[in-house]
Amino acid sequence: MTALLEIDLGAIADNWRLLDSMHPGATAGVVKADAYGLGAVQVAPALLAAGCRHFFTATFAEAYAIRACVPGAMLAVLNGVQAGEVAEFSAQDIIPVLATLEQLATWRAQAIRLGRALPAILQIDTGMSRLGLSMADAELVRLEPARLEGLRLDYILSHLASPEQPQNPQNATQAARFARVMQGFPGIKTSFANSSGMFLGPEFFSHLTRPGAALYGVNPTPGCANPMRPVVRLHAPILQIRDLKVGDPVGYNGIWTAQRPSRIAVLGFGYADGFMRALSNAAIARFDDAPVPLVGRVSMDLTNFDVTDVTAKTGDWLELLGPVHGVDALAAQAGTIGYEILTSLGRRYQRHYLGV
Ligand SMILES: *Cc1c(COP(=O)(O)O)cnc(C)c1O
Question: How far is it, in rounded angstroms, from Cα 183 to Cα 202?
Fold first, then answer.
């Protein structure tokens, strides 16, 4: 018996509807990295059914994998387009988010080759120093509009570096720079806020918001109550229970030893399933509603929990992720963020989709 990962597509749809209701513009669904590890082929149709008509992936392969799942919807690739890929993009009706003047020229050449206007999205870097045209390149495009000829510019997009930190002055700086760029492109629609950005206020919304993590239950407002519904539940059966004497060590290197006569439950998952080794001696599972601490090192395929204080027996299930103890809590115990917990969720878990 293996660990069971339940993914609630109904909760994802509800989360999208909540985010969409927050602002007058359109709300995309970011489904990159296989919908943050939850399965883009399952998640994208659920979002489409909820009303989502704009989708973003990171790569062309990810977009191609869901093109048939979201008929008629806009499907765009955040990581842009390389010279050898333009024909595939246009043939599949997949839009590149253009990040350089070279990509812009390459995509425009494809439009000329095909003799039809191709849709395009331009990314401007407003201060993250990641993908996107520099402010100077954006100014060049404004001064030389021929660079856009043959293209239908659907959106100009920018991405926030620190939106989960509402006090971080970087947010206002980026918003001001984005507004300045957009003055040069009157009438062109904007796409700005990600999940956390949507909670910074109306000046961050734009015509097309791009939430990802919040759809999947990650708290977009760290430090405040999570407005999103939980989406994932991970639980696993106990394979064996061992009775330990005081001083008995548990797991590789014996980094935990019994301080009292203890009952240790062995479960069949580990870091090969994305249950990170950094969770050694740190995670807390639940049995019914009682906390059950992880003890010793997480190994590749096995992990130990101290069930001394509960009545758990072999074959009973412990909950690793759930409504009470969600991705953000587990992330804190691993020293990472909910995003990484989700995108690390293993392929060996038995997956069960709810709300379909
Ligand atoms: C990942 C990503 C998003 C979604 O971000 P979340 O924080 O998951 O909401 C939006 N835009 C870009 C450019 C991204 O890379």
Answer: 18
